[in-house]
Design goal:
With about 260 residues, this protein is α/β, with parallel strands linked by helices. It is built from nine helices and 14 strands.
């Protein structure tokens, strides 16, 4: 995957937005006074947000935060990354522990209208799927009646899973974990027959198995998962900075920058 976001191009556009809105933006003033952006990310998901052996974070969600830091602080490296589980992420943003949540998070009606949050846009379109061990001989999700399913709590995947199985007259036994790493460890240890998550995450988690070739992602995609960065409602200036940084980065990729 080509580097999805152009940090510097995003900064050029967002700097103009931030300059005009500085007086009204509480988050902006807080970040500028602190001299550092605090960004909530995953606990480690390849392609989205993951630290290397030296602790340097990389991925498309990381690039969003680096673009905002470049726009507001003039330095893409002035970011502190806070790893958060799915259950922790919204509370951390609502409480002000982080300035922006950029953590492969699905934009839904409920989250956008009842949590006091604003989604700035979409940086990846995904959909939920299923990972199974090849030895089961399963070729379709419609063959999963009675299966045990490893799933991460605090995500849209829980409800999607229940709806899909009910719609198709099937039953399942949930095996719930707090983090994506725990779900793949449970799957690898045989505590469940299948693992369900966004397809991008399934391929990333599959790569963590001792022998990835022994597992396969089934063809069915059972949901629409538009993923993107999130900020608190009521701070339009900060929302505009994050939104237009993201838009500029997407345009930069389209132009091959």
């Amino acid at each position: 995957m080509k580097k999805t976001m152009s940090v510097l191009t995003g900064a050029l556009v967002a700097t103009a937005v931030s300059a005009g809105a500085a007086s009204a933006a509480d988050t902006l003033e807080t970040v500028k006074a602190r001299g550092e952006l605090i960004c909530g990310v995953s606990t480690g998901l390849p392609g989205f947000s993951i630290p290397d052996e030296k602790g340097n974070w990389t991925g498309i969600d990381v690039d969003v935060c680096r673009g905002v830091a470049a726009a507001v602080l003039g330095d893409a490296m002035k970011v502190k990354f806070i790893p958060l589980t799915a259950k922790e992420r919204f509370t951390a943003l609502q409480s002000g522990e982080i300035d922006i949540l950029s953590r492969n998070t699905t934009w839904t009606h409920t989250r956008d209208t009842s949590l006091g949050l604003n989604f700035a846009g979409v940086n990846y379109y995904d959909g939920q799927g299923f990972l199974v061990q090849k030895e089961l001989g399963v070729k379709s999700a419609l063959e999963l009646d009675g299966a045990s399913v490893c799933i991460q709590s605090g995500t849209t995947t829980e409800l999607n899973l229940a709806d899909y199985f009910k719609l198709n007259g099937m039953s399942f036994s949930p095996v719930v974990y707090d983090t994506s790493d725990q779900t793949v460890q449970g799957f690898a240890a045989g505590r469940c027959d299948i693992l369900t998550s966004d397809q991008s995450q399934l391929y990333a988690l599959r790569s963590k198995l001792d022998d990835p070739s022994k597992a396969v992602v089934l063809p069915e995609v059972i949901s629409k998962e538009p993923l993107g960065p999130v900020v608190r409602q009521g701070d339009d200036a900060w929302f505009n900075i994050v939104k237009w940084t993201l838009f500029a980065q997407i345009n930069a990729e389209e132009l091959g920058l």
